[in-house]
Automatic annotation (TrEMBL):
<feature type="domain" description="Bacillithiol biosynthesis BshC C-terminal coiled-coil">
    <location>
        <begin position="364"/>
        <end position="519"/>
    </location>
</feature>
<dbReference type="InterPro" id="IPR055398">
    <property type="entry name" value="Rossmann-like_BshC"/>
</dbReference>
<protein>
    <recommendedName>
        <fullName>Putative cysteine ligase BshC</fullName>
        <ecNumber>6.-.-.-</ecNumber>
    </recommendedName>
</protein>
<dbReference type="InterPro" id="IPR055399">
    <property type="entry name" value="CC_BshC"/>
</dbReference>
<comment type="similarity">
    <text>Belongs to the BshC family.</text>
</comment>
<keyword id="KW-0436">Ligase</keyword>
<feature type="domain" description="Bacillithiol biosynthesis BshC N-terminal Rossmann-like">
    <location>
        <begin position="1"/>
        <end position="362"/>
    </location>
</feature>
<dbReference type="InterPro" id="IPR011199">
    <property type="entry name" value="Bacillithiol_biosynth_BshC"/>
</dbReference>
<dbReference type="Pfam" id="PF10079">
    <property type="entry name" value="Rossmann-like_BshC"/>
</dbReference>
<dbReference type="Pfam" id="PF24850">
    <property type="entry name" value="CC_BshC"/>
</dbReference>
Length: 519
């Protein structure tokens, strides 16, 4: 295996907002606590004050969540270490895509594990546990109910509603599973032995990453939500998170950076069996949209106290919730995910919770041997994979054409001829110069048409090279979307059970490059 690191700006896949953040642009410094560097973690450790009470809740809840799973020794050690005040977490989060969904689900977790390993080396007096925050409360089922492999979409359809983590793997799922008989055993075992989606995801993530010490957090617990009551009351009754997030968003927009998330006055959903719907204040009442549920202020105060698990934070408050229940130092996310935390700096400051070190996950493109050969045939370097096809085609066809398809010399000669003769004719009759100018324009249009025909003919002659290039670019970005956001891990994992190990070797969570991996 070989791998190459490409500057992210050269890939044309990332916003200026994200690139300016990782490059440490001065204008963005007021919106976060720490630069995304290994040296920042000493200060992050000093700032993180995680109470013994919260740590005890975390340890007890995680132990209960893992009670039905036979733990690897590495996981047992991590659970024990979490009780120690010198243990911190580094976290990534993601939706529960079927069969892991697109590759970047895997990349997030591998990046987080590698970060924990690097921190243990850099700060040996402390211990660092990689965490996968399982988005069990998410209700956007259409975003996760499929995966793509070899250009084909495999999709589970069900009428269930509410938090997707609670979806039952019922008869409809069993029928869907029959359409993927090729699935790796780790997935067959996980889905086949589970009653709910979150149970299955926990099992396969445990099997794939547990030996590396990854722990999985399901935040849909009354014990965790009890630690978040203060925020629930503030958000519902005072709307402070909305005000603070709007202020920071407006400040970013004044610098030319668009907001990634959109705060609401109330940033909680009502969560119950089959229901996850937004809460809105209408007059003196709190209404759960798309239901008949309505609460007075006193009733909703009572609900917070007695059933905090019924309140599910949206994207504005999920980061704060994470930092409340974990002794967390870093969050690793995608490009948009990383920078939306910058809109939340005021929310964190209001609740006196430090913003963690914000790091992008690793970005990668995996090349199979067939496409490496295609690169050689085109005499491409790996960075050429990220160029625009139409721009490349234009220069390639012209360079390898059997004749000059641009007809540039002919244009110049023709234009000069008409201009000179027009000046001569002007001496006979003034209007003739305009006639020659009009004739020049018509003639140049004809030459343009002939140039296009010549180019098309050359493209047909060179079609093998052009199709080879298109195949590479489509492989790297199917349908114009980067490979890591489309292709499922089984495209590589089924043929090579060492695929994850190769990612561990190639990934460095503190090197912000596009990693091109040649298998």
């Amino acid at each position: 295996m070989e791998y190459h690191c490409i500057d992210l700006r050269k890939t044309n896949q990332f916003s200026d907002f994200f690139l300016d953040y990782i490059e440490g642009k001065a204008e963005l410094r007021p919106f976060y606590n720490h630069l995304p560097k290994i040296e920042s973690f000493q200060k992050a450790i000093e700032q993180k004050h995680f109470s013994d009470t919260h740590r005890q809740v975390l340890c007890e809840t995680l132990t209960a969540q893992y009670s039905e799973i036979e733990l690897f020794e590495e996981e047992k050690l991590q659970l024990q270490k979490l009780a120690d005040s010198k243990t911190f977490t580094v976290t990534t989060g993601h939706q529960m895509n079927l069969y892991t969904g697109p590759l970047y689900f895997i990349y997030k977790i591998v990046s987080t594990i590698r970060l924990a390993e690097k921190l243990r080396e850099a700060y040996p007096d402390y211990h660092f546990v990689p965490i996968y925050w399982m988005a069990t409360e998410d209700h956007d089922f259409d975003e996760i109910n499929y995966f793509k492999l070899d250009g084909k979409k495999y999709q589970w359809k069900t009428n269930q509603s509410g938090a997707v983590g609670n979806f039952e793997l019922d008869a409809s799922f069993k029928e869907f599973a029959k359409t993927v008989p090729f699935a790796a055993d780790v997935f067959k075992d996980a889905y086949g032995s589970s009653k709910t989606l979150k149970e299955a995801v926990r099992k396969y993530v445990h099997e794939l990453f547990g030996r590396r010490g990854l722990l999985i957090v399901d935040a849909q617990e009354a014990s965790f939500k009890s630690l978040f009551k203060e925020v629930m009351r503030d958000d519902l009754f005072s709307h402070t998170p909305h005000r603070e997030a709007v202020l920071k968003t407006e400040s970013l927009e004044s610098l030319g950076y668009g907001g990634q998330i959109f705060p609401r006055e109330i940033n909680f959903f009502y969560l119950d069996e089959g229901v996850r719907e937004r809460i809105e204040q209408q007059g003196d009442e709190y209404v759960v949209l798309n239901t008949e549920l309505r609460f007075s202020r006193s009733k909703i105060e009572q609900l917070i106290e007695e059933h905090p698990e019924r309140f599910s934070p949206n994207v504005v408050l999920r980061p704060l919730y994470q930092e409340t229940i974990l002794p967390n130092l870093a969050y690793l996310g995608g490009p948009s995910e990383t920078v939306y935390w910058l809109q939340l700096k005021g929310v964190f400051d209001h609740f006196k919770v430090p913003v963690p070190v914000l790091l992008p996950r690793n970005f990668a493109l995996v090349l199979e041997p067939l496409f490496e050969k295609k690169l050689e045939q085109l005499d491409w370097q790996v960075e050429d994979i990220f160029q625009d096809f139409d721009e490349w085609k234009k220069s390639f066809v012209a360079k390898h054409a059997s004749i000059d398809v641009s007809l540039e010399n002919e244009r110049t000669t023709l234009a000069t001829l008409y201009e000179e003769k027009g000046k001569e004719a002007k001496n006979l009759e003034k209007s003739l110069e305009q006639s020659f100018e009009a004739a020049k324009v018509r003639s140049l249009k004809i030459l343009n048409q002939m140039s296009r025909k010549l180019r098309k003919a050359e493209e047909r002659r060179q079609h093998i090279s052009l199709e080879r290039a298109r195949a590479i670019l489509d492989y790297a970005a199917p349908g114009g979307t980067p490979q890591e956001r489309v292709v499922n891990m089984m495209q590589f994992y089924l043929a090579d059970d060492e695929f994850l190990e190769k990612l561990y070797k190639a990934f460095d969570p503190l090197d912000y490059s596009m990693i091109v991996i040649e298998l």
